[in-house]
Write a structure and sequence with these properties.
The protein has 402 residues and is of the alpha/beta class. It is built from 14 helices and 17 strands.
Length: 402
Amino acid sequence: MHSLRSQFPILKTSVHNKPLVYLDNAATNQKPLRVINAISNYYIQQNSNIHRGVHALSQQATESYEHVREQVKTFINAKHSHEIIFTRGTTEAINLVAYSFCKKYVSSGDEILISALEHHSNIVPWQMACEERGATLKVLPMNLNGELMTEALPQLLSNKVKLVAIAHISNALGTVNPIKKMIDAAHHLGIPVLIDGAQAVAHTKVDVQALDCDFYCFSGHKMYGPMGIGVLYGKEQWLETMPPYQGGGEMIDEVTFKKTTYNVLPFKFEAGTPNVGDVIGLGEALRFISDTGISTIAETEEALIRYCEEQLLAEGGITLVGTPEKKSGVVSFLIDNVHPYDAGTIIDRFGVAVRTGHHCAQPVMDFFGIPGTIRASFAVYNTKAEIDVLIKAVQQVKTMFC
């Protein structure tokens, strides 16, 4: 564990004269030095625009950029590399589909189905699309454990539903949703499915062909990579028929003042100068995950979740929010009679970074009738000793407020 932690320079940081305990990994996780160096080396050695130049730097940068597309294809087991679209993150990937798919396939009277567990990024784009197209947004409910009530699917799925959009793992509660079951149920009626995988790709093996999902979205910064880069995987059959999301350079085939024809996949959806440096950083993050082992990461994090929940409950006066049978990455909790923001302020003084609030999942908090939670979220570099520091901080909160 020491050798692994030593790869992350920021973990040597002090906060309020205390060693940093970083437990906000669901918001963004930290970056190993190899990722930071990969980005830096691009700007030092290769910085150039890609696809458009015959000079050496442009060709080198293009090769590095397109190599990462192949890496992503392998990492999620996509069928074709041109099914991999680089975006600014999960949010843009979802918005791309909400705009382009709905423009082509959604009309007045149609429906889109999401779940009660979604992040705002998998709610608002569909609301906007429904408003524009005259469609209706339907919601699959959840129970008090924070699990989706999949028994309601037969009543919600119909020929009016044109797309289902579901999170793989809840960012607010850590619930691992039964997405394969839901994909199969939707496909039985010929309905495509988008999966928000932002909280999943760094924690569990993702195989888009085995899942048979139609779209899968994720961000680099939640999987040890840089901010500002993400991925949309889409099945070729959908991407070929969907109109472009943005217009500009690279996404064109030929432009005249009378008519423009569009480029082939994946470039049809990658308008403008790409974020080459951060794509290269994403590639190094994928190598870090592969070298560490996704099974090692999952086992480490599962042990940390169990330990954290056990220690919190042993303290008394703690309520866990979200107790699903299958959980990954996250422990959300409340300290009795203490507002999460007040608790978070005290916890921070111990050098512990946790997230407090609604976690961009206000409907989830409304369901439980609470203003928000304290969320501890884990990565492979976290330790039980760090959880012990969190527990000491919680004890201080209880001393001060309870």
